[in-house]
Design brief:
This protein is mainly α. The chain is built from 8 helices and 2 strands, in the order H-H-H-E-E-H-H-H-H-H. It has helices spanning 40-51, 56-59, 68-90, 123-138, 152-155, 158-175, 177-187, 189-199, and strands at 102-103, 109-110. Strands 1-2 form a two-stranded antiparallel sheet. Helix 3 packs parallel to helix 6. The chain is globular.
């Protein structure tokens, strides 16, 4: 906000105390080229999601001048933030006593890389460890010191993060289908993630075992 009685020229993005859920983050849209912030890409992605979470193609459509590495990085940060919502919902029924391993189909058992030597973890622990590990990497000053420019060697690390966090989708789909369906119908997150990793070749088709796109049968692949 300008001072000295001038015109309010800055778009304020904050949810004031007492804001109703229906009005949460309902501020005026802003063109990308007018977003004057180091967080502009994140703000633009979140703005596009709020506008229509079903419009996956538009959400993933980068502005013409946008650096691709930063675009992929910011989308992966956003995926991980939203996946925390699925993790919270899974806690209601994904218990260490019932989901003793991180599995998808009978052919897929995943080892948790959060330990000194990768080993089996209860699915809910694997989920927490994976999201914590992704957050640590994506917020690392060593690999990602800037939000406006990213080295190719750091961009190359995004694929391994994608493969690990995708396992949360696959476990939820094959073992907690009702929770998955409710979450997906609201967020369209798994579909967006699937289109994203295919568009930027961050995962192979064989690893995408949750049928999200037209023409996919959901047949099992060998681990």
């Amino acid at each position: 906000m300008s001072e000295g009685g001038g015109t309010d020229s800055v778009l304020k993005r904050r949810n004031l105390p007492g804001t109703k859920a229906a009005n949460y983050a309902r501020w005026k849209e802003e063109p990308f080229d007018e977003m004057d912030s180091t967080l502009a890409v994140q703000q633009y992605i979140q703005q596009t999601i709020r506008k229509d979470p079903k419009d996956v193609d538009q959400i993933l459509n980068a502005p013409e001048t946008q650096d691709e590495g930063v675009w992929k990085y910011e989308h992966l940060r956003q995926f991980c933030m939203e996946l925390n919502g699925l993790a919270v919902k899974l806690q209601a029924e994904c218990k260490p006593e019932t989901c003793t391993q991180m599995t998808a189909t009978e052919q897929w058992i995943f080892l948790c890389a959060a330990h000194k030597t990768p080993k089996e973890c209860p699915a809910i622990d694997y989920t927490r460890h994976t999201l914590d590990g992704a957050a640590c990497l994506l917020n690392s000053n060593k690999y990602f010191p800037s939000r406006v420019s990213i080295k190719e060697s750091s961009v190359a690390k995004l694929g391994s993060v994608c493969r690990r966090v995708y396992r949360i989708f696959s476990h939820a789909y094959f073992h907690h289908r009702q929770i998955f369906d409710v979450f997906e119908n609201e967020s369209h997150l798994c579909r967006r993630f699937t289109v994203f990793v295919k568009k930027y070749k961050l995962m192979t088709k064989d690893n995408l075992i949750v049928p999200m796109l037209d023409g996919e049968s959901g047949t099992e692949s060998d681990a």
